[in-house]
Amino acid sequence: MRKGALPIYLRWDSNADARIGVQAQKGKPTSAVFQVQRQVQTDSGIWDMAWVRIGSDSKRRPLWLVLPFVMHRPLPDGSRVSWVYVHRRRVGTHHEWSISVVVSSADGFETDAQQMPGSAVGINLGWRLLPDGGVRVASWVGSDGVTGTITIPARDLRQWETAEGLRFEQVVCLDSAKERLGNWLAQQETVPAWLTEATSHLDQWRSADRLRLLVREWEQRRFVGDESIVAYLIGSYEGKDARGWPIYRGFFRRWQFLKDSEAGLVKRLVRRRDDLFHNEVARLRRVYHTARIEKVNRAKMKKRQEVEEAESENAVANRNRQLAAPGRLAAIIAETFAVTERVNPKNITQTCFACKRLDPFDAAVELVRTCQHCGVTMDQDERAARNLLAGVAETDASGEVMNERPGTARVSQDDEGREVA
């Protein structure tokens, strides 16, 4: 009999994100994995074909998942492939597929020559709105005395506001469609029983997918007199405006356009943010061997932030916190540096770096603090970064080594700990 925790039932959702992973036992050389070149010609160019074995049939013949793909960078020479993942993620009203390859090397990956042995950098994660409209995501201090910040520019925040505007228009579009359908139903003398039952709680619908599925069923069960309302619910293309934007009338075509536009914009912004994080962390990695960051339980932090956001009326602050994504930056730091040490964060800001004495103050009000004991004035985020660099905290002065893996696989993770390409 099987021992351990009971299996967890997960409801199947055909629109949810999904992943298939295939492990190569003991690893396979990259030259062997990518030995055969199979390509296909499409309107967008020539694509390589990935053949991923996902199982076997009853006669032990392999079952293959075949996908066209483009490799955005070559795999390291001499490395071995240990895992191949195929991801499917929902983007707007469609799905996006990607492939990630996990590689390892027994001899380790090359490091940069300018990196000094024993060098370290303290990185204080968190977001701070700047006077120019940007968001400072992290402050860092190196063992060589150099300081710096990682900042998301103001233009990206403005585009995030555009995405929020598109999201609001989706809500307006759905509410208008519900109101119009409700009024149409009230004016009809007779309505099919299936439609009456399907729309019995129409005023409580919060998802546009419910209305979209209703329209799909309605198209298969048409009846006399429904021409105008069905045409409205399906929607139509009316041309382009002066800016070149398409004009849609009705519900679904317009909602789909708004949904895809928002999802595409958010995807570009997240990729731009991640590129910024990768480039800034790689620049630090070329100089410093070890990164020291706060030891934080990201799962508890996420739950606490969800409660705070539900209670907060400051939508701008919530948006900035989501865009800053300190958990994502921490994952990139852990995967990039050869060694990542996590320091107990208790009183990391309240402890003066200069005199090492506890200096309590309201960190939400006093961004630049002058120590009451020694008189040293310093930005609170830089103070925290210096304490992280020194491994100094009120109750923990050593720091715990969480990641020391030269020559192992480097796999990106999102805020929920899933591997991404």
Can you walk through the features of this model?
The protein is α+β, with helices and mostly antiparallel strands and 421 residues long. It is 34% helix and 28% strand. It has 10 helices and 18 strands. It has helices at residues 30-33, 154-187, 193-198, 208-220, 227-234, 252-285, 298-311, 315-324, 326-336, 380-390, and strands at 18-29, 39-42, 45-56, 62-69, 80-91, 94-104, 120-129, 135-142, 147-152, 236-240, 246-249, 290-294, 339-343, 368-370, 377-379, 400-404, 412-413, 419-420. A 6-stranded mixed β-sheet has the order 9-8-7-12-13-16. The longest helix has 34 residues, at 154-187. 20% of the residues are buried. Mean pLDDT is 79; it is low at 303-313 and 392-421.
List the keywords.
421 residues; alpha+beta; 10 helices; 28% strand; globular; disordered C terminus
What is this structure, in a nutshell?
By secondary structure, the protein is an alpha+beta fold. It contains ten helices and 18 strands.
Radius of gyration computed on alpha carbons: 27 Å
Q: What are the secondary-structure elements, in order, as H or E?
A: EHEEEEEEEEHHHHEEHEHHHEEEHEEE
Helical stretch tally: 10
The major beta sheet can be summarized as: 6 strands, mixed
Average pLDDT metric: 79
The portion of residues forming beta strands comes to 25-35%
Number of extended strands: 18
Indicate the low-confidence ranges by residue numbers. Answer: 303-313, 392-421
The N- to C-terminal Cα distance equals: 38 Å
Structural class of the helices, strands and pairings? alpha+beta
